[in-house]
Design a protein that fits this description.
Mean pLDDT: 76
Oligomer: single chain
Order of helices and strands: HHHH
Largest sheet: none
Structural class: mainly alpha
Shape: elongated
Strand content: under 5%
Low-confidence stretches: 103-109
Number of helices: 4
Length: about 160
């Protein structure tokens, strides 16, 4: 059972809360959109917020974006299950093992060097950089899920009165 925690001002920008806002928006979208097939062939051209999901070669409709948002929610809740990503990860692990076994024998005598400190510092900077990026993406995806829900309501004729 997941407990709902009230959001304090300090936690407003936490990754956990950004994920919860996105998941909540997609859940709301999912519950509102009772007939997703009505989104087929509905273009996005008039919706600025949704256009950032669209790539240059992608001429998708609202239905494809609905599916994409649900897929991203599933990835957040259950982890990314892309076979191609798993293959890339396995390949990089093989390369890392080969490199680390070679470097382990040469650096086994030194326990903690300046290079390790720099790596740790870089990891923290990398983490902060990626965390900031992820929070920004989640914020945009949340807006897009809310926008899609609003657009669906307008398409079927409910809730289109300036909400």
């Amino acid at each position: 059972m997941m407990m709902q925690l009230s959001e304090t001002p300090n936690q407003k920008n936490s990754l956990f809360n950004a994920m919860n806002r996105f998941i909540g928006a997609v859940n709301n979208m999912d519950q509102t959109i009772m007939v997703p097939s009505l989104l087929r062939d509905v273009p996005f051209d008039e919706d600025r917020e949704m256009s950032s999901l669209k790539s240059d070669e992608d001429e998708g409709d609202m239905y494809s974006y609905y599916q994409q948002l649900k897929s991203i929610r599933r990835d957040i809740e259950w982890g990314v299950r892309c076979a191609a990503a798993d293959e890339r990860r396995k390949e990089s692990m093989k390369i890392t093992r080969v490199n680390s076994s070679a470097s382990t024998s040469s650096s086994a005598s030194s326990s903690f060097s300046e290079e390790d400190e720099e790596e740790d510092e870089d990891l923290e900077k990398q983490f902060q950089y990626h965390l900031t990026g992820l929070q920004g993406v989640l914020s945009k995806l949340t807006q897009q899920a809310n926008s899609l829900t609003k657009r669906y309501k307008q398409e079927i004729g409910i809730g289109g009165w300036g909400h």
